[in-house]
Design brief:
Chain A: This is Putative ABC transport system ATP-binding protein. The complex is a heterodimer. Chain A is α/β, with parallel strands linked by helices. Chain A contains 9 helices and 10 strands. Chain A is globular and about 60 Å long. Chain B is mostly helical. The longest helix of chain B is centred in the C-terminal third of the chain and has 30 residues. The relative contact order of chain B is 0.19. The chains are: A alpha/beta, B mainly alpha. The interface between A and B is medium-sized, with 34 and 22 residues.
């Protein structure tokens, strides 16, 4: 379980470019939930994900992962519990290391690293097996440099790397946005398969409202650094993009009202 | 042409600069950390080894102490960068400048002679070899052992984490790697190797001098880049072999240039030759590729 409560974070505090990215953001994700997160540009989606991962440290608020307070911990100390796939297909892997070396890095995520050989013989069977599930023929290319792979292939391997060891939460940061539609569909399908098979708890940020409703078990919309609505279960069934847009417009209207109240 | 003594002399210094090139490979290539500390850690290694040998220490233990001193210098540079957020290049320049004073303090004077002292080379002179061949033999052994150890390290879990830190720090952090710690470890390791090179250089040349570090970074880089142009560094082992090959070829080229009377070059032209060789090493691979490209296009 992962729980964020009243997260607040302002970038460039005390400068003319002061930008409050998170304004009291709270969200609890239960074990086994697959939450899709939507919101317009600047809604705080990426900042929220970065705050959960440890890439940015919030000003105030609390982040609890599996009963441990990780609010002040840097990324590498959270890595044992938090797995991540980035938007940029090149960001999740090292291009000048081989496929097996990338997987060997991931299999030790969040654990102590010693002086024994990184790519151990006993790993190779597991690597081949997981790679063959991608059906990309990569199981025969363990020694190839990661840089030889296409963006879609690299993103698929990133996903595999994130699920190689257990995690409390898998963070997916618009991980299909930089891919062509066909590859994006493949990676999304793979994502659903892995999350279902391994019963992972996941948080997926997406730009596509359609995608947000089609996959996952719960949808959360962010606006101006807060959760504006949160739907799951029956309410979410049969909901369409236009319904979501309606909810969003309604929410924006309320925001305007708030402002006019303040000005008045 | 080269005399036999000049040839072995070039091999001897080439092997020592091979160790420097290993260090520069770790900082510049593995960690992507442009580190100029080496101009200070090379004479630091020489100074520490020389003073301890004069004080009666076993020369190997003195050399080991030089390695530790080099590692400490590297760690200072890395900590300035990681903990105090000073730009890596600037952090290394600060350490390098500080080491000039430190080295003078260690030696108490600008240079220290070792000619009459027992060094790591002394027992090897009893072998049935010519005087100028002995250091080459010993340094081949030292470089070979260093190469194997470094290669194994780069293939280890920690070594792989270090390579990921330099190549993609964000990904490395997401995999739970403490990237700051890796930078400290790597830059320390790099300067430890340079300290070793300095200690061996002082013992083979018979003196430690506070100015002996000037330009070590350029020579090390020349060796690294030249070696990479000759031996494509597609794997770790090839990259390490490239360091040694580059350093030896570089010293041979310098010796040849200085020995060839037709060129009319003298010892004071060394830095100019170095700069020209480095420029050629950087430019030539590109020229070679474009020539090969043109040739293959014609065939097609």
């Amino acid at each position: 379980m992962i729980s964020a409560s009243d997260l607040r974070l302002t970038f460039g505090k005390g400068t003319p470019l002061e930008n409050p990215a998170l304004r009291g953001m709270s969200l609890t994700v239960n074990q086994g939930e697959f939450v899709t997160v939507i919101g317009s540009n600047g809604a705080g989606k990426s900042t929220f994900l970065n705050a959960l991962a440890g890439e940015v440290i919030v000003d105030t608020g609390q982040i609890i992962v599996d009963n441990q307070d990780v609010t002040r911990l840097p990324t590498h100390k959270r890595a044992a519990r938090v797995a991540r796939v980035f938007q940029d297909p090149l960001a999740g892997t090292c291009e000048n290391l081989s496929i097996e070396e990338n997987l060997a890095l991931a299999i030790k995520r969040g654990q102590r690293r010693g002086l024994t050989s990184a790519v151990k013989k006993q790993y190779l069977g597991q690597f081949r097996e997981s790679l063959s599930s991608l059906k990309l023929g990569l199981e025969n290319r363990l020694g190839d440099k990661m840089g030889l792979l296409s963006g879609g292939q690299r993103q698929a391997v990133s996903l595999l790397m994130a699920s190689l060891t257990p995690s409390s939460i898998l963070l997916l940061d618009e991980h299909t946005a930089a891919l062509d539609p066909k590859t994006a569909a493949f990676v999304l399908e793979l994502t659903e398969k892995i999350i279902e098979e391994q019963k992972l708890t996941a948080l997926m940020v997406t730009h596509s409202m359609k995608q947000a409703l089609e996959v996952g078990t719960r949808t959360v919309m962010l606006h101006q650094g807060q959760v504006v609505f949160d739907i799951a279960g029956e309410d979410r069934e049969g909901l369409e993009v236009k319904d979501l847009l309606g909810l969003f417009e309604k929410q924006r209207g309320l925001e305007v009202d708030d402002d006019s109240l303040l000005l008045g | 042409m080269l005399s036999e003594i000049a040839f072995y002399g070039a091999l001897e210094t080439g092997l020592i600069y091979g160790l420097v090139a290993f260090g520069i490979y770790i900082s510049f290539r593995v960690l992507d950390f442009p580190d100029l500390t080496v101009d200070g850690s090379f004479p630091l290694g020489a100074a520490v080894a020389a003073m301890l040998i004069i004080a009666g220490w076993n020369p190997w233990i003195a050399t080991g102490a030089a390695v530790l001193a080099g590692m400490a210098a590297g760690a200072v540079t890395a900590l300035l960068n990681v903990k105090l957020n000073i730009l890596n290049l600037l952090a290394s320049i600060l350490t390098m400048i500080a080491l000039y004073s430190v080295n003078l303090r260690i030696m108490g004077r600008p240079n220290v002679a070792l000619l009459t002292e027992e060094t790591v080379l002394t027992p090897w002179y009893e072998l049935d070899l010519a005087f100028h061949q002995v250091p080459v033999l010993l340094f081949v052994v030292v470089v070979f052992i260093s190469l194997i150890l470094l290669w194994r390290f780069m293939k280890s879990e920690t070594g792989l984490a270090m390579r990921a830190t330099g190549a993609n720090p964000r990904m490395a952090r997401a995999q739970g790697i403490a990237t700051g710690g890796m930078i400290v470890l790597g830059v320390a390791l790099s300067n430890g190797l340079v300290g070793l090179a300095g200690a061996l250089f002082a013992q083979s040349q018979g003196a430690a001098d506070v100015t002996m570090g000037v330009g070590v970074i350029v020579i090390g880089l020349a060796s690294l880049i030249g070696g990479e142009a000759l031996v494509t560094p597609s794997t770790v082992i090839r990259a390490l072999i490239a360091c040694v090959v580059g350093a030896i070829i570089y010293r041979l080229a310098i010796a040849f240039a200085l020995n060839a009377d037709v060129l009319g070059l003298q010892a004071q032209d060394l830095n100019l030759i170095t700069a020209v060789l480095v420029t050629l090493a950087i430019v030539l691979p590109g020229v070679r590729n474009s020539v090969i490209g043109k040739l293959t296009r014609k065939k097609a």
